[in-house]
């Protein structure tokens, strides 16, 4: 079965500490359950909503464990054609 594909308009609605989705490397992650456990604090994740957070994620240099943990938060693919010009 194919993964769900989300548009930018769908993802940006999930931008608070009760419902937080991120776009990273063409994938959409629901990080809501991880907010309280994030080593950098929930604000770091919340600041990455409403945009493609790939650069933010890569700039930090996450560990293999962090990348493995992300697999459990994956909810679908991102339709990159819907990303507004920056």
From TrEMBL:
<dbReference type="InterPro" id="IPR036400">
    <property type="entry name" value="Cyt_B5-like_heme/steroid_sf"/>
</dbReference>
<dbReference type="Pfam" id="PF00173">
    <property type="entry name" value="Cyt-b5"/>
</dbReference>
<dbReference type="InterPro" id="IPR050668">
    <property type="entry name" value="Cytochrome_b5"/>
</dbReference>
<keyword id="KW-0408">Iron</keyword>
<feature type="compositionally biased region" description="Basic and acidic residues">
    <location>
        <begin position="49"/>
        <end position="64"/>
    </location>
</feature>
<dbReference type="GO" id="GO:0016020">
    <property type="term" value="C:membrane"/>
</dbReference>
<keyword id="KW-0256">Endoplasmic reticulum</keyword>
<keyword id="KW-0479">Metal-binding</keyword>
<keyword id="KW-0472">Membrane</keyword>
<keyword id="KW-0349">Heme</keyword>
<feature type="region of interest" description="Disordered">
    <location>
        <begin position="42"/>
        <end position="64"/>
    </location>
</feature>
<dbReference type="GO" id="GO:0020037">
    <property type="term" value="F:heme binding"/>
</dbReference>
<keyword id="KW-0812">Transmembrane</keyword>
<dbReference type="GO" id="GO:0005789">
    <property type="term" value="C:endoplasmic reticulum membrane"/>
</dbReference>
<feature type="domain" description="Cytochrome b5 heme-binding">
    <location>
        <begin position="3"/>
        <end position="79"/>
    </location>
</feature>
<keyword id="KW-0492">Microsome</keyword>
<dbReference type="InterPro" id="IPR001199">
    <property type="entry name" value="Cyt_B5-like_heme/steroid-bd"/>
</dbReference>
<protein>
    <recommendedName>
        <fullName>Cytochrome b5 heme-binding domain-containing protein</fullName>
    </recommendedName>
</protein>
<comment type="similarity">
    <text>Belongs to the cytochrome b5 family.</text>
</comment>
<keyword id="KW-0813">Transport</keyword>
<dbReference type="GO" id="GO:0046872">
    <property type="term" value="F:metal ion binding"/>
</dbReference>
<dbReference type="InterPro" id="IPR018506">
    <property type="entry name" value="Cyt_B5_heme-BS"/>
</dbReference>
